[in-house]
Amino acid sequence: MKTLILTCNTGEGHNSCATAIKEYFESNREECYIKDGLGFISLKVSHMISWGHTYIYRHLPRLFEHGYGYSERHLDLFRYGSIVYKFIGQGAEKLFACISDGDYDTVICTHVFAALMLTQMLEQHPMKIKTAFVSTDYTCSPCTQDSNLDLYFIPGEEFTNDFLCDTITRNKLVPSGIPVRQMFYQRSDKRDSKMRVGVDPNHRHLIMMCGSIGCGPMTNLLHDLELQLPEKWEITVICGRNQKLEKKLSLRYQVHKNIHIKGFVKDMGEMMDSADLYLTKPGGLSVTEAKTKELPMVFVNAVAGCEEYNLRYFVSKGGAVTGSTNVELTKRCLALMGNEQELERMHQDLGALNNGNAAEIIYNRIREMN
């Protein structure tokens, strides 16, 4: 089996999902490659959309929320003959050449734009290949139902009706969960992990992150938390790829021994093992990683859109709480950090949601296809 995974550089979640699948496939000695789906239109287009997505996430989150809501209300935006349909279809010919020249027999999409492009390619050039889409949020994103692939890997059985349509029938749906890297299935002793990440093993540890982009009200939230931080509590702030934010916070808190400012952290598995609580925006991959680690969460509704569905899901399941203001979020964090019984309850509720290794389920199901 030779597999091509198509992602899109609109946030790190789709890339992380692709990496998790590739990691598992390669552990089974399968040949697997990741490519940017938008790159088949052009590298300039890919870079422009990636930059625009990052800018809007950081500076204009309500615009993203409005745009997502508009696309939900106007599904014809992605239908046959639409401007978006034609725009995405520009990459179909190059994608066909890539699959043909690379002799791929399996193509997996971790972004809906890639799934639409692959659907159009197959309409123009029917091929005997196995195709699949992997959802990276706890909802069916707009225009997913305009694609037509062999399999759809979804977050869980309860999301089945959200995906069902003329082209996505029940036999195509596989409730695999969302794939995360294998490091998140491994567990380390919390005290040992705290020492390895530079935290006193006798202290409470809150990790704070708003995606790889480093968006949301992190500066103000950290300020509010710092003013009320008990002596034996520590905070690690992960700024992701937002170097400007990392530099700003590093300068401000360089003399505060209980606040640690980090950039991009490679071993988030170890970091989560060291934590008692996770303050984060509800990105699909971020929350799934924490769910896999059974780490209680407090959600910052920084961007909304598809992340609003993730927030609602985990709050309803008891694994997370949220607040509408920075003051409320600060109170939630401080109250939970001091309530071992409530943290344990949330830990147990998250454990009940874990339904196996998603990448393994995807690999085995695709292997079963004729």
**Main sheet: strand order:** 2-1-3-4-5-6
Q: Name the shape in a single word.
A: elongated
Amount of beta strand: 5-15%
Mean pLDDT: 88
Largest sheet report: 6 strands, parallel
Give me the count of strands: 12
> Fraction of residues in helices?
40-55%
Radius of gyration: 21 Å
**Poorly predicted residue ranges:** none
The structure class reads alpha/beta
Number of helix segments? 16
Give the quaternary arrangement of the chains.
Answer: single chain
Order of helices and strands: EHEHHHHEHEEHEHEHEHEHEHEHEHHH
The separation of the N and C termini measures 12 Å
Entry summary:
With 370 residues, the chain is α/β, with parallel strands linked by helices.
Structural summary, described in words:
- The mean pLDDT is 88.
- The protein is elongated and about 65 Å long.
- It has 16 helices and twelve strands.
- The longest helix is centred in the N-terminal third of the chain and has 17 residues, at 43-59.
- It has helices at residues 12-27, 43-59, 61-73, 83-89, 92-102, 112-124, 160-163, 190-196, 218-227, 243-252, 268-273, 284-293, 306-316, 326-337, 340-353, 358-368; strands at 2-7, 31-36, 106-109, 130-134, 151-154, 173-175, 204-209, 233-238, 259-262, 277-280, 297-299, 320-322.
- 46% of the residues lie in helices and 15% in strands.
- The chain has a six-stranded parallel beta sheet with strand order 2-1-3-4-5-6, sandwiched between helices. A six-stranded parallel beta sheet has the order 9-8-7-10-11-12, sandwiched between helices.
- Strand 1, helix 1 and strand 2 (31-36) form a beta-alpha-beta unit.
